[in-house]
Amino acid sequence: MSDHQPVHLQEYQPPAYQVSHTELTFDLDPAATRVSARLDMTRHPEAASDAPLFLHGEYLTLHSLALDGTVLDEGDYRLVEGGLEIARVPERFVLESVVEIAPCENTALEGLYQSSGMYCTQCEAEGFRRITYYPDRPDVMATFKVTVIGDKAKSPVLLANGNPVERGELDGGRHFVTWEDPHPKPSYLFALVAGELYKVEDGFTTQSGRDVTLQIWVEEENLDKTAHAMASLKRAMRWDEETYGREYDLDLFMIVAVNDFNMGAMENKGLNIFNSAAVLTHPHTATDQAFQRVESIVAHEYFHNWSGNRVTCRDWFQLSLKEGFTVFRDQCFSADVNSAPVKRIEDVAFFRTAQFAEDAGPTAHPVRPDHYIEITNFYTLTIYEKGAEVVRMLCNLIGAEAFRRGSDLYFERFDGQAVTIEDFVACMAEVSGADLTQFMRWYAQAGTPEIDAYGEYDYVHGEYRLTLRQRTPATPGQPFKKPLHIPVRLGLVGTKSGQDLRLTLAGESLGTDGVIHLREEEQTFVFTEVAEAPVPSLLRDFSAPVKLHFPYSREELAFLLTHDSDGFNRWDAGQRLAMLALDDLIAAHRNGVEKVMDSRVVEAFRLLLTTPMEDKAVLAEMLTLPSEAYIAEQQPLVDVDAIHAAREFVRQSLALALRDEFLALYEDNQSQEAYAPTPEQIGQRSVKNVALAYLMAIDDDQGLAYCQAQFDANHNMTDVRQALTLLVHSEHNHLAAPALKAFGEKWAHDPLVMDQWFTIQVTRPQSDALERVEHLMQHPAFSLKNPNKVRALIGAFAQNRINFHRLDGKGYALLADVVIELNRLNPDVAARMLTPLTRWQRFDDARQALMRQALERIKAEPLSANVYEVIEKALA
Ligand code: B3K
Ligand code: ZN
């Protein structure tokens, strides 16, 4: 298992043989499913006439192979590593194969596997080769006809892509359904589901008047948890028609919920398969956050029907072509149907914490990587989220109207094709006339660019000179970086008027909110006719995925916090202000000096709490301190304990100083309305629950009483979960223990609620968190084979920074044990769980040694390609 060779973008070759039509028959059985395939194949016009035929295939038992009806014997083909080769084939031919596979043994959850007794598939990126011998690459597109045969009693429902065209009874209590998908597709979009499933059905009429049947298939007990997903799907379908002019193209659109799934969901043509956590919601079982996540993932997968399925990727290096674009599309959708500023704040807060950390670590890679060992490792924040930021910059650079013309051109020109990032960007350049040559570096260069900014106001001439200097730090394999084209949206806020001043640059007016283009390593922008001294508001709405440093004083930040016309930058000013105070406190903690709270932060918070704000969700964001993970990202060396102590100190100081204001905020935002995941209600619940968290930070009797009452009232999961979390994360064990027990017993039957029950316990800051993980791993509801459980328990614990980074190394050792076990069961999840250990360079010597020790112990095992690739980078 050690011979893991990288694949390089440079070595791309078009496929020598294409498949025009694929027919598959599945005779389902848990341990011995028989897959018969019939492929209509043709040689590529440019391929040599003696080009051998290679078909991918893994974990397959070959029963028979025939070419144009003649059975091949063992001398006619060769079983080679990763597949099968036939030395000579005609220009056109039909290849038939029969293989056997064992879905019940498939714990990797790639290919055909079983989840809670149900059969389902996951083929992206390279899972189809675990189903049958096939040219399993995205630039091979075929129409599919699929017959699924199953046991009538155990699998009454048999689903595949497209439209059902035939069904019937067979001997031995079996039946079949045949499906046809008229749209040519790559193998990674193939899907099959079979089992005892129940459906909720609805309909949608497209803008051109076609009726589409919409179905969500679930286990019977979850039938009451589909309404929100269905409503979200219909909203997404309408939005894509209105915003991109994209209409759905089949008569049937199906979503299936499965319990065991490596990621959130999968956009298989006409048959999306979802992790049940990404589709099921009910006010009693799902939080507001979960409702919003479901809405965005349902939309994301639906949007892939155009950005991904109709136009797909030439090869997996182009993954961000579909993922970055589709994330951008789902972000805009969520912003449109919810609170837009909150959506942007949430996305950027997450991005700056998690993607910046990826960019700064040993697995840093460009939005378009140039090599990989295991593509599954590249479903990353860089490909998805940074990719989306790059598309957002493109949209802002050429303007929304040109961007729409560019996307129309892209969808029209490349419909039914497998293309590249250049093809996409070329459409944008063509419609806008913009020169995007330098911009393309965003796709090729890894690492987070940093901008050092400096500004000077000249009273005499009424000029403001803004100097920007950019640099991108070295990343593995990329020691030197070129300057990027960075759009910086900005305003100059007058210190006297408190208003955005008019921007005049080289005689040209940019309005009051403009974009300047940083292209050189260093550039000075001189704004003229600036009537009063301004505070610059830079990188508005996070106009580029960079770190921007400007020597703001605390007074200037407090000023922007109340005066900036850009909602995102108002929030960011608050975060920057809090960071300055936190930096002082981290230093004080390290030096053993008494901690003193910065009164300017307290006063800024007081102002926020006493000024009415329309969007309560924005207020909740503004009252939320930077997370420990974000603070850590800002430090040269991470001091886990000092960060935790400093942040707790700020939380408690704010709560003590503003206790009455928080209490009033809590009381004023009670509601007896029936639960609905509307932006208004969500905003109200968010501020209320933020206030409650502050009150619980200071052992306040009234706060504690409210917390217990909120738990007992049992109004909705958002409120219950927050109350339970605050109790369990407090010192009030006599209240927490019975609440936890009651909650665990009440929801023992619901895996998604039990996931939350696990997470709440292992994220507590008290020093017994690790022992609780060990204990809970023995709980009957826990299983290493279920990725949701692994994430809820182990993944959540690794985010519990003070406990995961315990100085006795037990946190690291526990994670290493889990990764070693998962490496055998599920390499994809194993490699993902490994991430926190790869960031060892950021910590002190003692922790570095312990983390490396854990990595070395994993390295000594026989490793899957997934874990091998990550370990090699981490220890390089
Ligand atoms: N395209 C899928 C991800 C597939 C995961 C492969 N290991 C989900 C999505 O981005 O929509
Ligand atoms: Zn996607």
TrEMBL record:
Q: Which reaction does it catalyse?
A: Release of an N-terminal amino acid, Xaa-|-Yaa- from a peptide, amide or arylamide. Xaa is preferably Ala, but may be most amino acids including Pro (slow action). When a terminal hydrophobic residue is followed by a prolyl residue, the two may be released as an intact Xaa-Pro dipeptide
Where do the Aminopeptidase N-like N-terminal domain residues begin and end?
A: 106-189
UniProt-recorded name of the protein? Aminopeptidase N
Member of which family?
Belongs to the peptidase M1 family.
A single Pfam family, by name? Peptidase_M1_N
EC id = 3.4.11.2
Question: Where does the Peptidase M1 membrane alanine aminopeptidase domain start and stop, copy by copy?
Answer: 229-442
Record GO terms (molecular function): alanyl aminopeptidase activity
